[in-house]
Design a protein that fits this description.
PH-domain like; 159 residues; 23% helix; 2 helices
Length: 159
């Protein structure tokens, strides 16, 4: 896993908050607990609300993708529950779209790659633990049934 502190925080924005009257901007970073989104909402471009923070635990991330074209770069975060992003402005149906400036595309790609790698490692570990729990333990599972050979049958007279 890439150490969480090795990645730069990623500046992002979320458009059309509060029916388009506000915009949220902040920093996204990978932490030991999950994806941490620090943000501040600006109403009408003038009034700033308090800085808030939401941490999306790794187990709650269903998918994270980086979408880029000539004009835009976006990170699409899909969670397993609506509650996970309930406090995050601009989220809908457990999904949040983070807009990323062109100058931060490389940082965005690194963040998404690091998150996907970590999610894959967690899935492999869960699978390995699940399989280890299902395997029978100890020598009882490898018990060898002794079958008598012909010499021992003739000595005892049993067939």
């Amino acid at each position: 896993m890439i150490p969480a502190d090795a990645l730069l925080p990623l500046p992002y924005s979320v458009a059309r908050v509060h029916a388009g009257f506000s915009e949220a901007s902040g920093l996204a970073r990978m932490s030991h607990a999950g994806l941490t989104l620090e943000y501040q909402v600006r109403l009408l471009g003038f009034f700033r609300f308090a800085i808030r923070e939401v941490t999306v635990p790794f187990d709650e991330i269903a998918a994270i993708t980086l979408k880029k074209n000539l004009l835009h770069t976006r990170i699409v975060l899909q969670t397993r529950s609506l509650r996970t992003l309930a406090a995050m402005p601009g989220s809908k149906t457990g999904q949040l779209v983070l807009r990323v400036a062109r100058r931060d595309r490389e940082t965005a790609a690194l963040l998404v790659s690091a998150l996907r790698l970590h999610l894959s490692e967690l899935a492999v570990n869960r699978l390995a633990n699940h399989q280890a729990e299902e395997l029978p333990a100890g020598p009882a599972s490898t018990e060898i049934i002794h079958q008598p050979d012909e010499a021992s049958i003739h000595k005892t007279g049993h067939q």
